[in-house]
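ugh ok so i messed up the first submission bc i forgot one of the chains. this is the corrected input, ALL of the components this time, i swear. 223 residues overall. if the numbers dont match what u have on ur side tell me asap before i send this to the collaborators (the ones from the other lab, u know who)
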Amino acid sequence: DADVTQTPRNRITKTGKRIMLECSQTKGHDRMYWYRQDPGLGLQLIYYSFDVKDINKGEISDGYSVSRQAQAKFSLSLESAIPNQTALYFCATSGERGEQYFGPGTRLTVT
Amino acid sequence: QKEVEQDPGPLSVPEGAIVSLNCTYSNSAFQYFMWYRQYSRKGPELLMYTYSSGNKEDGRFTAQVDKSSKYISLFIRDSQPSDSATYLCAMSVSGGYQKVTFGTGTKLQVIP
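and heres the new structure output, hopefully the right one now
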């Protein structure tokens, strides 16, 4: 089984809808992250969490919120989706050296 | 100017060739350097992790860091069609959690 899992893998939604992307990990890491990836822009950090009580904004947090339900679970929400949030979203965890382990991604399309 | 620059490619090589993938960076404080491989529709997978300058080898892969030139490279020997993917460089100022800055990736195609 994969160490970092994401659900759903694909989602098409309409402008204005609320969407939640879920992430679970079995690596036992405290640190978890949400990134979005756009062609030509690389990976951009949305939010990160050092532990259940510590959540921090990344570079592009506007329009997003997160919830760390447990050490192993970190969810990303789009409260009111807009078309420019169409992207590939990745959850990741990191070990002690800072190396990152990514989930398989969620392809989100907002129409 | 981006902190990390990476040629997007695509780079096409014949099977068996030596591949050289490169990144340049502007922040001289970067000390930890990583290479990730990303297959189409998959998440990035950590390939190499190095600290400071020097070389690190793992099988057919060699990572090289030249901090004086702010330049890092990933060499792939005896390239295989299965190496066809996008390769992302990444770097951070220190280990643990610090912000990791990613390159935009170079798409590699190894032709049988």
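quick check: Chain B touches chain A at residues 8, 32, 34, 36, 41-46, 49, 88, 90, 92, 94-100, 102-105 (CB under 8 Å). that seems consistent at least. Chain B has a mean pLDDT of 92.
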